[in-house]
Amino acid sequence: MNTEDGKPKASLHRQTELDMLLTPEFRSLVGKKFTLIHYRDLTWARGLEISKAAAKKH
């Protein structure tokens, strides 16, 4: 799905998320309310099966 000017909405969502992560307000909460991890850390801890689509149950 695209915006009226043709930009993919997914890229706008990703940019908005990045902008939020870089704000001083958000950064001040890191380590107090939560710990940031990298996707690599998540797959190392939980395995690659977490990235696979869930099978539909019939």
Describe the structure.
The protein is an all-alpha fold. It contains 3 helices and no strands. It has helices spanning 9-21, 24-27, 39-46. The mean pLDDT is 82.
Structural class assignment: mainly alpha
What's the total number of strands? 0
Radius of gyration, in angstroms, nearest whole number: 16 Å
| H-E order | HHH
Instruction: State which percent range the strand residues make up.
Output: under 5%
Average pLDDT for all residues: 82
Q: Give the overall shape.
A: flat
The largest β sheet comes out as: none
Oligomer: single chain
Low-confidence stretches: none
Distance between the termini: 29 Å
Helical stretch count? 3
Highlighted features:
58 residues; mainly alpha; 0% strand; flat
Question: How are the elements arranged and paired?
Answer:
Blueprint: H1 9-21, H2 24-27, H3 39-46
Quick overview of this protein structure:
By secondary structure, this protein is mainly alpha-helical.
